[in-house]
Structures are given as C-alpha cells and as structure tokens.
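[Help] Beginner question about ligand-bound structures

Sorry if this is basic. My supervisor gave me a protein sequence and a SMILES string for 2-acetamido-2-deoxy-beta-D-glucopyranose and asked me to "get the holo structure". I don't really know what that means in practice or what format the answer should be in. Inputs are pasted below exactly as I got them.
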Amino acid sequence: MTKRNVSFVVWGVALLLLAETWAQSPRKKLTPPKPPKGQCCDEVRSLKVQVANLTSILEELSRKQETDLRNVVRQIMDLDQQNRQQEARVTEAESRYSEINNRVEIMQLQNLQSVTQTSSDAIYDCASLSSRNYKISGVYKLPKDELLGTPELSVFCDMETNGGGWTLIQRRKIGLLSFNRDWKNYKSGFGSIRGDFWLGNDHIVRLTRQPTVLRIEMEDWEGQTRYAEYSLFNMANELNSYKLFIANYSGNAGDSLRYHNTTNFSTINRDNDKCVDDCAALRKGGYWYNCCTDSNLNGMFYRYGEHTKKTDGITWYAWHGPNYSLKKVEMKIRPASFHP
Ligand SMILES: *[C@@H]1O[C@H](CO)[C@@H](O)[C@H](O)[C@H]1NC(C)=O
Ligand SMILES: *[C@@H]1O[C@H](CO)[C@@H](O)[C@H](O)[C@H]1NC(C)=O
Ligand SMILES: *[C@@H]1O[C@H](CO)[C@@H](O)[C@H](O)[C@H]1NC(C)=O
Ligand SMILES: *[C@@H]1O[C@H](CO)[C@@H](O)[C@H](O)[C@H]1NC(C)=O
Ligand SMILES: *[C@@H]1O[C@H](CO)[C@@H](O)[C@H](O)[C@H]1NC(C)=O
Ligand SMILES: [Ca+2]
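Answer (accepted):
No worries, everyone starts somewhere. Holo just means with the ligand present. The predicted complex, written as structure tokens, is below.
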C-alpha cells in the first residue's frame, strides 16, 4: 500500500516536472491543441497542490507507521511483563510446594530420629506439634515411634480452641456414619478424620498415658454451643475394659459424664455396663454405660425435626435432657502439662 503511494508520488513529481518544462518552454511546438495560457498555469498550480497533498499524506503515513510500531513494541513489553508475572506466580507456587515438602521431610527425619529421642521430644500428639509451632488446625500424621511403641496415626488437631494443642478423639456433625458398632471397631477406630469418627480406644489409651485434659464441645439445633472440660481424663487398657476415669469438671454444659465415671466401656457385642439392661443395645452406641446414661455422645444422629423424639440420640442430659439429640459434638484431649 505504501509502495503504491510512493510510486504515485514519483509519478506525480515526474508529471509536475514535465508540466513545468512544458510551461517554461518559450516555443510551444506540441501537436495537441494549445491550452489557453491561464489554464496551463492553473494546471501546474493544481499539480503542485496535489504533490504537496501527496507529500503530506506520505508524511502522515510514516507518522502513523511509527505510532503503529510504537504500539507493537508496547504490546510486546506488556506481554513480556505478563510473562514475568506468571513466572513469579509459578516460582511462588514452587516455593510453597517445597516448603510443604520440607515439612514432610522434617517429619520423616524426626521419625528416623525417634529411636534416640526421649519421650518428651517425640511427636506424640497435637500438643507436641503445637509446641513445634504447627499452629494451623487440620489433619496431621503422627509418625510411628519405636520407643513408645506407637504406630503411624492420622489425627485432627484443634490448634485454636483455648490455646490449641488438642487431639480430637471423636466428632459427630455429618450424621451418615453409624456409631452402633462392635468392640473391635471401637478398639481400632472408625470413620473419617475430617468428618465423623471415633479415634479408637487403643489410640486414646496411648494418648492418655500422661495426665490428660478432656474437653467436650457441643452444639444444639438452635446454634448454641456449650462445653464440658475435665482436667483429668484417663482410660484403662483393653484388659481393664477401657474403664473411664474423669475428675474436676468445669464448663457451661453441666457435668453429664460424672455418672459414667469408673464404668467399663460397652458395645453392642460387649455388655460391661452396671445395669440389668443391655445399655449399648438400648442406646445404640459404644460408651461407658452405667445404668444407662446421663450422656450418650456416641448415640444415634437425628436430624432437625427428629431430634427430640428418641432416647437413643446424642444426648447430654445436663443441657437438653434425655430426649434431645445434639447437632454437633467434638471430644478432644491434650496433656495437662501443656502450656500454650
Ligand atoms: C488532498 O487529499 C485529500 C484526501 O487524501 C482530499 O480529500 C483532498 O481533496 C486533497 N486536496 C487536494 C487539493 O487535492
Ligand atoms: C470392668 O472390667 C474388668 C475387667 O475388664 C472387670 O474385672 C470388672 O468387673 C468390670 N467392672 C464392671 C463394673 O463390670
Ligand atoms: C471419679 O471417680 C474417682 C475415683 O472414685 C474420683 O476420685 C473422682 O473424683 C470421680 N470424678 C468425678 C467427676 O466425680
Ligand atoms: C481443677 O480445675 C481447675 C481449673 O480448671 C484447676 O485450677 C485445678 O488445678 C484442677 N484440679 C485438679 C486436681 O486437677
Ligand atoms: C422422653 O421420651 C420418652 C418416650 O419417647 C418419654 O417417655 C419421656 O417422658 C420423655 N422425657 C422427656 C423429659 O421429655
Ligand atoms: Ca447390662
């Protein structure tokens, strides 16, 4: 397009020169009929104007080309910057990834070193993780520890409530999982660590070998929350039927575990309660049944509308009586020696 314009201009200039020589020539010997004098000079003037016009068009064109070029350069620079930003984002993601990797490696390293560690150094529970500055609530993997004879265990840590360092041993909130299970199930644990679960009696026994605090948090269907805390919580081993020992209640839910103090654990297939009835079968859970309940945190989950009709629900008598099944429960433990 530009080339054509240039040749147009060249053609115009040639025409102008031709016209000028023709106009300046004193002897007009041209064969075509002579144009009148005025017409000739008008034509030259018009050609001059045209040339000037063409020149200005040409200048404008080159100016336009320059701005076009500048725009292209700017676009390239923009793209380059975007590219650099994207690269920075990738680098950031990579560094985060490697940070997580480092954490995993540290855990593995600690796992390897655990044989030579004293038990106070070991990653033993969520409290030890909290002391090592892991302050985000969520799922953690406790490495196995030869010295303590503990296998690898996934736990959910509450790192926020009242200073954090809590290892969850139970949660009810979704309601799809049955808690009406047998001795073996309660012994090794069941459910999903982010949802509803029982950590397992053997794991709980192991985690409570040192003086331990138990905290129970509850929510009702009206959205209110209450808690009960026992500054001493202990569970005997399987040989002693996972007998419960609790002391020193505090909280605002009322003390509905005291009635279960010093009773053995019962399940649907193991009646260890202090009653002629079979409480585990009546209350449809695994628990430290007396005769039978003042609370039943592993009972049936009932949804809103059904939650006040039965006596085998998730109950805490001191708060809502024997016929009110709670919406949410969490049981969590931490060493009595823990200092946030
Ligand atoms: C100059 O060119 C423009 C268009 O490019 C045209 O509109 C204008 O009439 C021209 N002027 C003369 C004197 O030829
Ligand atoms: C609790 O279990 C132990 C053994 O596991 C047994 O000796 C004891 O009698 C049981 N206590 C009750 C009240 O059933
Ligand atoms: C549970 O029983 C033990 C032993 O009898 C007792 O020392 C403790 O105070 C009791 N706990 C509660 C909350 O009553
Ligand atoms: C009982 O609990 C209170 C406060 O929770 C605490 O100060 C006290 O030391 C506890 N007593 C025992 C024997 O654990
Ligand atoms: C709870 O329900 C049972 C039967 O479903 C009933 O006999 C009892 O009176 C109820 N108790 C309360 C406190 O509502
Ligand atoms: Ca019985």
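A couple of things worth pointing out: The chain is about 40% helix and 15% strand. The two ends are 78 Å apart (CA to CA). Feel free to follow up in the thread.
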